[in-house]
Design brief:
The protein has helices at residues 10-21, 33-46, 58-64, 79-91, 107-116, 131-137, 147-150, 154-160, 178-207, 212-223, 230-240, 262-273, 278-290, 315-344, 350-356, 368-372, 375-379, 382-397, 403-416, 421-432, 446-449, and strands spanning 2-6, 25-29, 52-54, 70-73, 98-101, 122-129, 140-144, 163-164, 167-168, 170-174, 436-437, 443-444. It is of the alpha/beta class. The chain folds into 3 domains: 2-174, NAD(P)-binding Rossmann-like Domain (Rossmann fold); 183-416, N-(1-d-carboxylethyl)-l-norvaline Dehydrogenase, domain 2, CATH 1.10.1040; 421-457, Single alpha-helices involved in coiled-coils or other helix-helix interfaces.
């Protein structure tokens, strides 16, 4: 099997080595000649350079490929993707060829490109998670598009991807650009889980006075059971790292958190679709709040510093609360994926989506089996529900910030306890005559139900 790869940055280089190691013949190109030389050198060291061909231009790449061609793009999202596609058309790709955008492109761009290039070649998308390490040794791969071009390359990508219990973490999750939407939501869940772990750390460190080593030990204990996950494991490792003078590394790091945009896209698309994912949105805003001083509203968002209060936390209750909150972050993401799938008629398979997340990716966790069981599993977690309520209350009493923890408790409470929406809708009708709906299903106005002599002015 022969595949081409355009883009030999960190992800491209490592994916290239993975592809070659798994037995594919690879034709690779990067506009920076040094990137190609670096890849060739690494391939020689690992003993499989005979399956690698570095080319100096895209025309040479297209000439070398057997038809129908399969070309992967790992270039920065945006205009560069279209630039490369146009150059490949000029180089001779045809309607039977498949070009797969494997970068972090916005799914809306993928939809537009599929239409734009439909008479030139088959355009498909694939989200890849796992970072450089995953790309090299087996990432999670969330592909999408029509079956045509994928049929000939799926068997090889199933080998290139990570595997869990003998099953590949590659899947064609749905149609059109759903692969990039799924990867976007994967990143939104990632934001929420990272922030949630940081909030648990914050509560233990400043609210309870625990040391970094004590918190790392607690995370290790949790990881021995059903809460084992990649993000919890790396958090524990980070907390154990010390500088040469024995200062905890985490205490040397500036508090500002960066972002590349996929978390923001998740929040924006959830709002556009009208699907509530408050934990995922709160995680994005939490990062924004760490960068307040760099915004044009810095002056208006600067207040006097306050001291947090000490709180007593039941560690077993904290574990249960973290467990439920983690599950709910995933469930919010899956609801968003399913809602988008129905809206765009993508036919996304959630079981296949979860399978891609079981290994190789950043949000892999042992409790994905519980998430796959659906809301019924969560409905049985009565002790965890009480724990989440109690821990959220204790956290707020500390005076510290817990955006994802609080948002997750609010999300679950809103869906499982009586709502206060009836008063808000009454307010809307009072000042704007937007209408109300009674429990009997009647649509009317306040004035249809009661006489109002004079409204408040």
């Amino acid at each position: 099997m022969q595949v081409a790869l355009v883009g030999l940055g960190v992800m491209g280089k490592n994916l290239a080595l993975n592809l070659i190691e798994k037995g594919l013949n690879l034709v690779a190109y990067d506009k920076n000649p040094d990137a190609g030389e670096d890849l060739l050198s690494l391939a020689k060291k690992e003993g499989f350079a005979e399956r690698l061909h570095i080319v100096s231009d895209l025309s040479d790449m297209v000439r070398r490929l057997e038809t129908p061609r399969s070309i992967l793009l790992l270039v920065p999202a945006g205009e560069l993707v279209d630039k490369v596609c146009s150059e490949l058309i000029e180089a001779g790709v045809d309607i039977n060829d498949i070009i797969v955008d494997c970068g972090n492109s916005n799914y809306k761009d993928g939809i537009a490109r599929k239409l734009k290039y439909q008479n030139k070649f088959e355009f498909a998308t694939m989200g890849i998670s796992g970072g450089a390490e995953g790309a090299r040794h087996g990432p999670a791969m969330m592909a999408s598009g029509s079956e045509g071009g994928w049929e000939r390359i799926i068997p090889f990508f199933e080998k290139v991807a990570a595997s869990h219990n003998g099953e590949s973490c590659f899947a064609r999750v749905g149609q059109s650009a759903s692969g990039h939407f799924v990867k976007m939501v994967h990143n939104g869940i990632e934001y929420a889980l990272m922030q949630l772990i940081a909030e648990v750390y914050h509560l233990l460190r400043l609210g309870c006075g625990k040391s970094n080593d004590e918190i790392a030990a607690l995370f290790d204990t949790w990881s021995e059971g059903e809460l084992n996950s990649y993000l919890l494991s790396i958090s524990s490792h980070i907390l154990k790292l010390n500088s040469s003078d024995n200062t905890p590394i985490v205490d040397l790091i500036d508090n500002k958190v960066g972002a590349k945009g996929t978390g923001l896209w998740t929040a924006q698309n959830a709002l556009e679709l009208g699907i509530a994912v408050p934990s995922l949105v709160a995680a994005v805003q939490a990062r924004h709040l760490t960068n307040t001083q760099d915004t044009h509203a810095a002056l208006e968002m600067t207040y006097a510093a306050k001291q947090p209060a000490k709180v007593d936390i039941d560690l077993e209750e904290l574990r249960k609360a973290f467990h439920l909150a983690s599950l709910l972050c995933y469930r919010q993401g899956l609801a968003l994926i399913k809602g988008a799938s129905r809206s765009h008629q993508w036919k996304v398979d959630l079981a296949k989506t979860l399978q891609t997340w079981r290994a190789g990716c950043i949000i892999r966790a042992d409790y994905l089996d519980q998430i796959a069981e659906g809301n019924g599993f969560i409905d049985g977690l009565n002790d965890e529900v009480i724990a989440l309520r109690n821990i959220a209350a204790d956290a707020v009493r500390s005076g510290l910030a817990f955006p994802v923890l609080a948002a997750t408790q609010t999300y679950y409470a809103t869906l499982t306890t009586p709502s206060n929406g009836h008063l808000v809708q009454a307010q809307r009708d009072y000042f704007g005559e937007h209408g109300i709906k009674t429990h009997e299903g009647e649509t009317c106005h306040l004035t249809d139900l009661t006489h109002i002599d004079a409204k408040v002015r």
